[in-house]
Amino acid sequence: MRILVTGSAGFIGHNLTKKLLQRGDEVVGIDNINDYYDVNLKYGRLQDLGIDIDQIVYGQPIVSSQYDAHRFIKLDLGDREHIDKLFQTEGFDCVCNLAAQAGVRYSLENPYAYIDSNVVGFLNILEGCRNYEVTNLCFASSSSVYGLNKSQPFKTSDHTDHPVSLYAATKKSNEMMAHTYAHLYGIQTTGLRFFTVYGPWGRPDMAPMLFTDAILHDRSIKVFNYGEMSRDFTYIDDITDGVIKVIDNPAKSNKLWDPKAPTPESSSAPYHIYNIGNNQPVSLMKFIEILEEKLGKKAQKKMLPMQPGDVQSTYADVNGLIHDLGYKPDTSLETGIEKFVDWYRQFYKI
Q1: pLDDT by residue (tens digit) across 197-214?
Q2: Do the Cβ atoms of 284 and 201 come closer than 8 Å?
């Protein structure tokens, strides 16, 4: 397949691109390489895919030195003209949209970045699929869409009408926009709600990287809600294996869907929403304990109240993933953190 992966210099996009190339797909990756976090990490991911970062020029494709079937283009999702041209010239079989302005807390500081990338940018992807007859689309949503919902585990059949951050609201809007295009134009569309992804090449604004950096450099870590939090930590390989399952099994209309008693995870359109999580929430304090063990060093903890826009707990119901695709994430936190720590020490030469 010829697949477009947006956000290919990102955490999930890099891992997915590598797996697709290794199994023989042709991949065009795009990313705007913004400075939301350290661009050197993004460049490192691209170099891992065989991209000569010194050749990067906006809008110009670079062929990988490692994978003949891979090209990278620095491109912004909000650039309507270039995105349209990309779809027109490439003839994609599938699009996987992972590019987005990420981060719950940053959405309090720079809300416009979320609308530009996550809403306007996603519309450009949908229009590209519509205008150039791409009928297989998957896209990144987020566990944050569950918002004020306290009923756990989170089920895709739950309504998600009460987000607590603009980031979550944009991801909810992506799901609604995608359903509209699936209904109107028959685009087989799957949204994936990721749950607290971690592992090698991870984002430095997330707890594993923040905590590891602080612990190794004798700084205190910020423990919000005084440690009374839990997350459904999901290892990166489990996430991307699930994405590939979705790519290979495009959404179909649900023949049993009842418009008189509608549920949000599917419909009469070729559209579906899945959770991808480890289905096993772990307390924040337990996570810190395991990280300390793998680092061989204790953390200095600064206990703080809950941050605005955050939620106390996440827990993924993955029955839909199991039933429809025969897949369930299964990497233990101990195994995942050990692999992450090994990569961290090697990448940062610590």
Answers
A1: 999 999 998 899 999 999
A2: no
